[in-house]
## 1
Amino acid sequence: MPCHDGAVGTLILVRHGQASLFSDDYDRLSPLGERQARLLGEHWVTHDVAFDEAVSGPRKRQRDTARIVAEVYAEKGKPFPEVRQLADFDEMHAEELLRTTLPKLVEQHASLRALMTDLSETSGGEQALRGFQRVFEAVMRMWIKGEIDAPHIESWQAFCGRVSAGIGNLRALDQRGRRIVAFTSGGTIAAALKASLELSDEKMLDLSGVIRNASITEIAVSRTRMTPILFNALPHLGDPSLVTSR
């Protein structure tokens, strides 16, 4: 880890537990997502992990992941900071983008139409998840290249700027030894890594696609720089069947 100027604090970014993809309400933890969050809390309590501050994005899946972890601490008689909700740690507005632009994009792009056909013909399970991911990434690549006309939706550039500003606005994060945990989403975590590693938009998008549910990413923060020290860690999910990315 490079030497930092001045005091160093740590920002711990947690992706929410598995949400309810292909249901009427995606923004809801699945039973597995709730279990992933509980296991994270139990792991931290067992290892006496403490935080000075806790924040979450505004999505239900983000807030509920934070709530479940805090409940585990309370059950074990351990202190956990009151969780503040911060819009800066919201996910990119990809759900709205897909909902409002996908039908027209499918009409306009034969390659995307083929991906949607493949997705519709899947039998569900992992095959459907992979099919959805291919559609998602294709639309996201169009979006970051400015090929989608969606002025009503936060732009890619605005999203990345929002996340960077949110990290900068956290109170006294650069104080030595201070630890702040943020419960958020994969795109937000990738945007934080983009800012700290000066990644291209394409690399950031690739990174966001591999971030696991309930995973832990840590970034050391000083007054002058941010340095990742841990990425996509899952010490609390020893059983491979508990590991998900969607």
## 2
Amino acid sequence: MIDFKKVGIKIAKYRKNNNLTQDDLAEKLFVTRQLVSKWENGVGIPSIDVLLELSKLFNVTFEDILCLNDEKTINKDDIFNGRNRMFVIQSIIKKELIVDLPNIFYQLSPVERMIILKEIKTGELSCNLEELFPKLTPGEQIYLRKDK
């Protein structure tokens, strides 16, 4: 899974390192400045054709632009810092990102909490339930107690 936010940060960094404005980059790529802005804000990522042009322009691999080889590290005090929220949740579920669920659970939105709880309930994700249970709302506790 690609973290759009990290990709956007990387594109902005390379653009600035090359002394280009968003308008300059847009012109070189035959796209709009608004599209460049969307990439840099993590709203989307460039198409494959544009990624190849960016690679040539910045003299880097497209894997580098897409952050495919970047190490997945997180700040335990803010697991979403600089990252797309759904990317983090999916990475936890896929076990690509190992976190101490009971200690970061408070950082999750109600929807994210339910996504994680569903994975715990189905056995796809494991954690120390004795530590997690007191941190759950009464409704979440009931959800986990119900038969599968």
